[in-house]
Amino acid sequence: MEIQEYIQSEQLDGKTRRRDIFYRRIYLFKYLHVMEKMTLTSIGKLFNRDHSTVIHGLKAFENSKLYDDFMDYTRKEFELFKINTFRRDLYTLNRTPVQYSKEQFKTIVDVREDNNLETNEEAIKFIIDNYEKQNAKNLA
After folding, report:
1. What is the pLDDT of residues 96-114, one digit of tens each?
2. Which domain holds residue 58?
3. What CATH number does the domain containing 22 carry?
4. Where are the beta strands (DSSP E) in the chain?
5. How distant, in Å, are the alpha carbons of 31, 81, 97 from that of 6?
6. 3-state SS class at 66
7. Other Cβ atoms closer than 10 A to 79
8. Taking the CB of the first residue and of the last residue of the chain, which one, N or C, has fewer CB atoms within 10 A?
9. Could you give the CA distance from residue 54 to residue 43 in angstroms, rounded to a whole number?
């Protein structure tokens, strides 16, 4: 699917400021700027916005990607439009300096959803606890 069709079909070019739409929109701002090398003005035109809104969105992306709900809302875009930068396939979680690969991040999100956990930190703790239990069984 072409990006412009996707933006229109998902109504990401509208006026709404709902969090889910905002997160998805700024993720695509980042994708178009980094991966497609589009100018701020041309990105703005796709979303019926001006270049200064795109600048604000790119700054907001850097702050928002640290929140748990950002990945929940942008999962579809993350799968369809992958962002690979010089730190290839790494994603930061939960306001920590720790970086995870996409596969590790997907595992964390899956564990979180499967076990009805509230945050990624809880999911990581759950994974570690289960790993330690498994090791204890193997040593016994």
Report:
1. 445 677 788 888 888 988 9
2. 3-83
3. 1.10.1750.10
4. 90-92, 99-101
5. 13, 11, 33
6. coil
7. 10
8. C
9. 7
